[in-house]
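We emphasize that the prediction below concerns an isolated chain of 488 residues; any contacts that depend on oligomerization or on bound cofactors are therefore not represented. The input was used exactly as deposited, without trimming of termini.
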Amino acid sequence: MSYKSRRLQFQKTFSYESEFLHRSIIEDAKYDAALNSEFSNHFKNKDFSEDEEKYNHTIKMLFHQDYRLLEMVINNLKIADIELIHIESRLFNSKDYSDATINGLIPNSLEILFVFNCTKKAYKDIIENLSKEDKEYQKLTDLKIKDEIAEDIWIPKHISDLDSCNHLMLKFQPEMASDHPGFHDKIYKSRRMEIAEIAFNFKYGDKIPRVEYFESEKETWREAYITLTSLYKDYACKEQLIGIKKLEEKCGYGPNDIPQLEDISNYLKKTSGFQLRPVAGLLSARDFLASLAFRVFQCTQYTRHHSKPLHTPEPDCIHELLGHVPMLSDAEFAEFSQEIGLCSLGASDSDIERLATLYWFTIEFGLCYENKKIKAFGAGLLSSFGELKHAISNIPEHRNFDPQVASVTPYKDEDYQPVYYVIDSVTDMKEKVRQFAKSIKRQNPIRYDPYTETIEILNNKKSVCHLGRVIKHELDTMENSLSSMLTF
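Result of the prediction step, given as a token string:
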């Protein structure tokens, strides 16, 4: 069963009673990992029948230039009535194997990849048969079965595939947790349902519908806007200050009205290539991070309850528009955000959890050094009056940013963080995360094609050659530019 069918089977309905709104992106990643693990264990341990669903398997094998072995494998597949979908060969790379595995192999031994379609029982049987053949004929000792490649995890291939991302609110149920400020407010609950419908009905290519905000919502925005922006001069990084100023000039940012997502999205496309997409509330961690890979930020349109203008138990448009959007208008920070998204595509549940934690300690609660002072760039800080002051103070621990450490650091969702990570610059943070990405295992390398807004999987000669031509063209452009500069 593919990951896509599994994720559809475990769609979550929205309920304040289950405290989804109190969970962070990290908690959601942990929840999905536990749920998927439980499902996988159930799936692996079930009794398999001949009419069980078939799905694709991939194995790699090493051959000592004895093509009779290849014929033997193909015959085994035929006998088992297994459909061979794809086969390709390459010279083996010793870096992929242990010394014990490659002992005795000559330099031009072949590594052959098989993709075939069958039931899980048939897959187990064929692996067992191949292993028996290897043991029975000692002269076939160069036949080695490499570990099965990670299971088929569905990833969006085109930006329109984000339409398939699962809202955690498949049916809006506003019976909020009793400690939520809007628990007893029927008008607020109804309003949340009304705005949520915009996100549920939105599809790729649509213009984002405009919201006619109530006066109470505008007043909530006004108080939060004035209070938070008054702190930015002393506490926010320069990218945030520049971003807010330009948004005031281009998108109608200001205390008197709530800016519209469609206007902001069009502006971001011009400045950093990012765009906004309306979301009803929370997405799964995997789907949220996948959106970033396409330079799409999932953005809420509702406001926090008017009784608590400086506090919200969940992300709202004040958090998104004041915390995230100004930073996403910075081209380099936008590139960093996309890097985390690209890292998540095809990653395991445990790696999604690490990436969600990394997102938490950078994009949500990150700090930076600026002229020997500590400033905030994380959206969770820039949209929180109290925690912004707390984070910059001497109360919490400030650690130099190390993605390997930050990605496994415990966090606080219900209170201020005891630990914050401080970067030297966005450039340095981006480079460290690129190195961190090498520790994430996935089936194939990928790249984002901004012209077609697609994810290209680099798993064949054609795709790699195309990438080479793209890189060569960019290098030629750089060389011509440098030559022109030196001429003058």
